[in-house]
Amino acid sequence: MNKVTHFYLYIFLILRCTCVCPAVREVSFSTSSGGPPKRPLTGYLRYARPYLLYINVCHIDVRFVEITKKIAQEWRLLSPEQKKPYQEAALAARQVYKEEMTKFKEQLTPAHAAALKEEKRQKMARRRAIRKKRELTMLGKPKRLRSAFNIFMSEHFQEATGESTQAKMKNLFEDWSKLRTAQKEVYMQLAEDDKIRYKNEMKSWEEHMVEVGREDLIRNRKKTKPKNSVKAKGNKTKIKVVSESNGTETPASTPGTRESTSRAKKTEE
């Protein structure tokens, strides 16, 4: 067995011997902050929670992904009887969650409900943006081009004064504004070089995305028009207007151009 397996078996025996079972503990919800009650843990998360808490508290130097994979494998190997306490506790907590959520919705004012809805929308938008960024990183999208100030800031950020990141950025911006034009030209040239780098890398990356069928990630995609589309403008069809008096035929425009028809009638009169 490797080091990770030994560690996993070690904490497994410790937790079992000390009879730590998070499945039978009561779950309480706090609505004092004005927010909705938290969702309860599932049966699997109740089983995995003591292992993850132990790793987090003790700061064990192991890969989190490896531990979670082993915990999931151990959960799959459990019998239905062994999973039953965790699943029953999850169902009980789910029922409490529904009751708490019903009480919470009843005491909401329209303004508070609208605020919570907007907060939920913003949270979902942030999650979608994070997933999108993570996906683009996995697909190898080139890093964004940097401006002259970004290059200056990255070079001097460590030595900048300020307790917080915002304070450092503010001080760096003041230092940047005090630079002479000749000093800024160095960073401006680096920014131009980075612009060429970004353009070339994006071109190669987008060509690769087309090859793998991810045209949706390409910038400024041209929407292809359907082949059988008919143009509305300029598609005039000549029709014949027959005069009742002399029986002559007068060419006119398509229906919709009423002026030509009215002119033909005036001519007949």
TrEMBL record:
Residues 222-239 have a biased composition (Basic residues). Residues 37-105, 142-206 bind DNA. Residues 243-259 have a biased composition (Polar residues). It is found in: Mitochondrion matrix, Mitochondrion nucleoid. InterPro entries: HMG_box_dom, HMG_box_dom_sf, HMGB. Binds to the mitochondrial light strand promoter and functions in mitochondrial transcription regulation. Component of the mitochondrial transcription initiation complex, composed at least of TFB2M, TFAM and POLRMT that is required for basal transcription of mitochondrial DNA. In this complex, TFAM recruits POLRMT to a specific promoter whereas TFB2M induces structural changes in POLRMT to enable promoter opening and trapping of the DNA non-template strand. Required for accurate and efficient promoter recognition by the mitochondrial RNA polymerase. This is Transcription factor A, mitochondrial. It comes from Polyodon spathula. The lineage of its organism: Eukaryota, Metazoa, Chordata, Craniata, Vertebrata.
